[in-house]
Automatic annotation (TrEMBL):
The keyword DNA-binding applies. Pfam families: FCD (PF07729), GntR (PF00392). This is GntR-family transcriptional regulator. Transmembrane segments: none annotated. It comes from Sulfitobacter indolifex HEL-45. InterPro entries: GntR_C, TF_FadR/GntR_C, Tscrpt_reg_HTH_GntR, WH-like_DNA-bd_sf, WH_DNA-bd_sf. Keywords: DNA-binding, Transcription, Transcription regulation.
Length: 215
């Protein structure tokens, strides 16, 4: 049975990680122990522990003589990440659709995605959290812990890039996710794989388009 005990450092790490993924902490932001201890209402020790975890996960990096900073992801890196994600997540979606596992949470996510389209629009944090959960639950349904770990790591890095870097993908992204969910719920492995491939391809195209046509 997993240890349910969560330290203050763990909680602080989750809060800082969420701030990075929803764009509150942009790439290059200095992670000062004192500043974030004051901001989060904790001592410097859990902040120090949290920053260490961020560095170990690649969400922050250390530089000589100064505080760690939030990492950035280059265009070449994100293209490579999306390619690998497509290989992994298309397979995860195929397996999820074939798993025969309960799709109750997927139905709930589908309803929330439709709500995002119909309005009111969600905050960046709300959308990011639901998007993350969808990709993770599909990996969980695929039944491989290694696949889940790899997808989680790569999805986090994609999230670091697309905050403020990709044009508004809310509605098309939600529509693509709904099509993906529908295929999984219907138990159609090839349709689910194709839906995931299309979604990640459109993310890639959107990034490239924004790089060359930013306005």
């Amino acid at each position: 049975m997993a240890d349910k005990t969560e330290t203050l450092g763990d909680t602080t790490f989750k809060r800082l990680k969420a701030m990075i993924l929803d764009g509150t902490l942009e790439p290059g932001t200095r992670l000062s122990e004192k500043k974030f201890a004051d901001h989060l209402g904790v001592s410097r020790t859990p902040v120090r522990e949290a920053i260490g975890q961020l560095v170990s996960e690649g969400l922050a990096k250390r530089s000589a003589g100064s505080a760690p900073v939030v990492s950035s992801v280059s265009l070449n890196e994100i293209m490579e990440i999306l390619h690998v994600r497509s290989l992994l997540e298309c397979e995860a979606s195929r397996k999820a659709a074939s798993s025969g596992k309960s799709t109750a949470e997927l139905s709930d996510i589908r309803n929330k995605m439709q709500g995002f389209i119909d309005g009111p629009r969600p905050t960046a944090a709300e959308h990011s959290a639901l998007d993350m959960r969808l990709h993770f639950i599909l990996a969980e349904m695929a039944g491989s812990n290694l696949l889940l770990e790899l997808i989680e790591s790569l999805k986090v890095k994609t999230g670091m890039y697309d905050q403020g870097s990709i044009p508004d993908r809310l509605v098309p992204g939600c529509e693509e996710h709904i099509a993906l969910i529908d295929a999984v719920i219907a138990g159609e492995p090839e349709a689910a794989s194709a839906a995931m491939k299309l979604h990640l391809s459109n993310v890639r195209k959107s990034i490239i388009s924004h790089i060359y046509h930013p306005f």
